[in-house]
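Two quick folds needed for the group meeting slides. Do the first one here.
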Amino acid sequence: MPVRSFNREQNWLLPPSLDELLPTDHPARFVAMIIDSQDKAGWEKLEIKIEGEERGAPNYHPRVMLGVWLYGFMNGIRSSRKLEAACRDQIPFLWLTGWQHPDHNSLWRFYKEHRLKMRLLFKMTVKTAVKMNLLDLAVQAIDGTKMGANAAKDRTFDRNGLQKLLERTEKRIEELEKENESGLDPAPVHLPEKLKQAEQLRTEVKKALEKLADEEADKHLNLTDSETKLVKTRQGVTPGYNMQAAVSPVKGSQQKQVLITAEEVVMDANDTQQLIPVIEQARENSGEKAAVTLADAGYHSGKNLVDCEDIKQSVVMPEGETKKISQPYHKDHFTYQPESDSYICPQGQTLTYRGLKKVHNETRRVYRGNVENCLNCHAFGTCTHDRHNGRELKIGEYEKQLRRHREWMKSEEARQLYRQRKMLIEMVFGTIKEALGMRRFWLRGLQKVRSEAAMMATAFNLKTLFSLWRQQPGEHAKWFQAFHEVSQALAG
């Protein structure tokens, strides 16, 4: 078989146009379509001046800068320096910029100035999906994942650790000052670098101690990012944040595609407090409440069940202690007698009210059986091992809702619904971490991290919407109009 000849120095007989270098169904064109659909009001909502300033050196057009960042996040590029390189040698970026080459400083300044308002782009993707009748709100899945922060673990201290570090730092400063004392020689114009670093560390430690002054003794604080917490990830315990998301499937998608309908980053390592806020954000973004919400055991609590009832939200959510619930002498098998405010155990013995008790910051009613009856019962050793008090029940204020939800979770309908959760939500976090390369945040501070997470959620949705857009080549004008109308609605 002959070999094709080639020549790297061959000249073009007719130079190609920039538009010819990019396929008509390329994702860069989809990004450009979204940006071009924004009118003046849309740009003003993002607090971006589309006209530029009358004086001074000309800036790159906002359409160029926003296009580079959106397409960069869609391809796992979050570094302004890597984006600068891409704008020099990657055809999609060259097409988006019109063959311009913004430097990393210009790219970073644009992102830094507008990243908080750019969170609005995420809401736009959700509302556009709704307008195109793509979102299936028969079910939504909610989950959280721990994401590493841009901070080292060895910079995390409790109050005692900070105090010891301060003592070592002040001792080091004293030593460095003695080293720099030089008799009649004039004092240096600038502080020596080591002394400057030590004094800066002393200032950081003092600020951290002030911040922990009114906190608990076991409170920890990271000197690099004071808003991060120690979280458990697959890589071990590390400073990080808790990223929350809600997702719903795409209608009629054979590839099980999903869209993120809500996203948030919180400092809490626990998911329990995040269920209702994420549900409410998903409803606000999509304009409609999902019929059923799927959540794992990390969100389970009596209060969450009550709150879901208040907003009429059906929820499928298992408990963490399933083994205890299945035991024959779990408190669910004790029958409440409202006329006497007592419980009857499975063996027919009565447990009477004995007072209130604080358990995990929650006040519970305590019921206890007769000690002699418990000791003589054949279930002693299985029901209870307490030889001094007998069997004890601690009943919280949400006991009725917990029991009712346990019965619902036993139904075949609930079990079938819950099987969808893992397929819906865990794939999203896997894609964000593996395909989009976001295993940890690059920015520091909760507000900055939230903007970074919102951009990543926007990029995930854009990739899903692009795949649907590419399947409908005759509907591109309809997509443009949908983005335009959503932009106008958000701006208004």
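Then this one, please, same format:
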Amino acid sequence: MPTPARQLVDAIARRFAPAGTFTRLYARSKVARDPIYFSLLERGGIPDGARFLDLGCGQGLLLASLVAARDLARDGIWLSGWAAPPVLSSLRGIELDAAEARRARLALRGEATIDELDLCDAKLPASDVIALIDVIHYLPPAAQERLLAGVAEALAPGGLLLLRICDAADSLRAFLTRASDHFSTLTKRGALVRLHLRSAAEWIARLQALGLSVETQPMSQGTPFANVLLRARKPS
């Protein structure tokens, strides 16, 4: 891993130190192993001045990665060939789990607003970029429909939805993804949850029905999972 990349992982993990050793180590491992964080920063596409909303933000890893990347770049430390980290006008996360929301607040240190709300009925604020990473399959189908409609309404003209889903059509890898999600929720919450998956084609069709244009990007590099990132854009 190039030195600036290691420094980025270190900077993100340090933000979680106030929340405890386990939380810090989890942050380090997750950012280093999950391709979503580096991919979003490398490719860019999040404009300066954007209002960024992370739905189901958990302990705030994505928000912390954006803040840490901005700070490193300001210090002259960044990866050659990567897009410049965005300087955002606001960062907001929504998380139902109170313990996770507390960890996110500790890590963000006032850089982001973390609201404890249920995505099944939350009123979403107007946003330029909305992230929904590995979350929507935890909601029942009717709640999924309501949330996507709410996202389409909350996005500003030209706004971007970053939606990572498990492609249910990729049966073996989807099974491994479900198993990983079950293990994660069992260890964190002490209970199993029911997952509601769809194929990538079904998700794309639903987003297009809401008037969004969609690009797909594989997002499971280095893992056995069936993850796909859907970049859905609202017309200007």
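Slide caption for protein two: The longest strand covers residues 155-166.
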